[in-house]
Amino acid sequence: MTTLANTIATDLLKIQAVFFRPDEPFTWASGIKSPVYCDNRLTLTAPDVRADVENGLKTLIETYYPDAEILMGTSTAGIAHAAITAHLMGLPMGYVRSGAKDHGRQNRIEGKLLPGQKVVVVEDLISTGGSVIEVVEALREAGAEVLGVVSIFTYGMQKGLDRLAAANVENHSLTNFDVIAEVAAKQGYIAPEDVARLIAFRNNPSDESWIGGAK
Predict the structure, then answer these.
(1) Would you report the helix, strand and coil content of the chain in percent, each value rounded to 5?
(2) Residues near 152 by beta carbon (within 8 Å), at least 6 away in sequence
(3) Alpha carbon 3 to chain centroid distance?
(4) What's the chain's Rg over C-alpha atoms?
(5) Can you say how many angstroms the Cα of residue 36 is from the centroid of all Cα atoms in its chain?
(6) How far apart, in whole angstroms, are the C-alpha atoms of residue 46 and residue 85?
(7) d(Cα 103, Cα 130) in Å, to the nearest integer?
(8) In terms of DSSP H, where are the helices of 45-176?
(9) Any residues with CB less than 8 A from the CB of 99 and at least 6 apart, and which?
(10) Which segment, 22-31, 45-54, 205-214, is predicted with the most confidence on average?
(11) CA 92 to centroid of chain Cα atoms
(12) Is residue 131 pLDDT above 80, yes or no?
C-alpha cells in the first residue's frame, strides 16, 4: 500500500465520499447490490481533502504522463478535478460531454483541442470503464493523442480492467477498492472480517453470496 493510496483512502472515508455498508447494501441502477457508496464530488467541498486529491492527480500525471499538453475532464464529475489540476500544472484543460450538444456549435469536446495534442483524461471513478473509454474514443476521433487516464478511485473490477486493456487505455488511480477496504477495517469503519466480503463483491458483483456473510 503506497502512502498516497493510503492517504486518499483515509480522506475519502473521512468525508464519506466512499462509504461501506456491507450489512445494508445499496442498490445500483443496474439492480446490483453493493456494499459501497461512492460520491467523489464530496471532495470538492472538503478543502483539505480536495488539496490531497488535486496534488495527487498532479503527481500521477507528472509521474506517468510527463509529456501531457492538455487535461480533459469527463462530464460531469471529472471537470472540476481537471480544472484544478490543470491550474496547478499550468496546463490548458477542457472537458468531454457525454453527447454532443443539440444547439450552437453542437460540440462534444469543450475547450480548444489541437490535432496531435497529447491529452490526459481526468476521471473521478472507474468501475466497468465504459464511460471513460467513450471519452477517450471521442478524443481520438478528434485527432488527439490520448496518453492515458488518471482517476481518484478504481474498483479494480475485472470487467473494467479487460475493457480498458482491449481499448488500449491506461489508467492510474490515486487509490483503489482493496486499499480502501483495508483502511476502513483498520480505522473501525467496518469489521476486519468484512474485508473478505467486500473483496468477494469486487471480484464478482453479480454474485450476492457475500450479503449476510459471517461477521
Answers:
(1) 40, 20, 35
(2) 8, 12, 40, 43, 53, 57, 81, 123, 124, 125, 173, 174, 175
(3) 18
(4) 18
(5) 14
(6) 16
(7) 26
(8) 47-64, 79-89, 130-141, 158-166
(9) 108
(10) 45-54
(11) 21
(12) yes
First to last CA, the chain: 25
Q: In a 3-state reduction of DSSP, which class is residue 7?
A: helix
Q: How confident is the model at residue 29 (pLDDT cuts 50, 70, 90)?
A: confident
Cell of 84: 484544478
User: What would the DSSP string read from start to end of 92-108?
Assistant: -EEEE-SS--SSTT--S
- Three-state DSSP class for 161? helix
The number of angstroms, rounded, from the C-alpha of 191 to the middle of its chain's C-alpha atoms is: 25
For residue 77, give the C-alpha cell: 464529475
Locate 49 and state its grid cell: 481533502
64: its cell numbers: 506517468
Q: Is the pTM of this model over 0.85?
A: yes
DSSP state of 42: G
How many helices (H) and strands (E) the chain has is answered by 7, 10
Model pLDDT, residue 106: 55
Give residues with Cβ within 8 angstroms of 185, minimum separation 6.
191, 192, 194, 195
Q: Cell numbers 466480503 label which residue?
A: 197
Question: Quick one: which of 35, 17, 6 has its CA closest to 198?
Answer: 35
Beta bridge partners of 109: 96
Whether pLDDT at 81 is above 50: yes
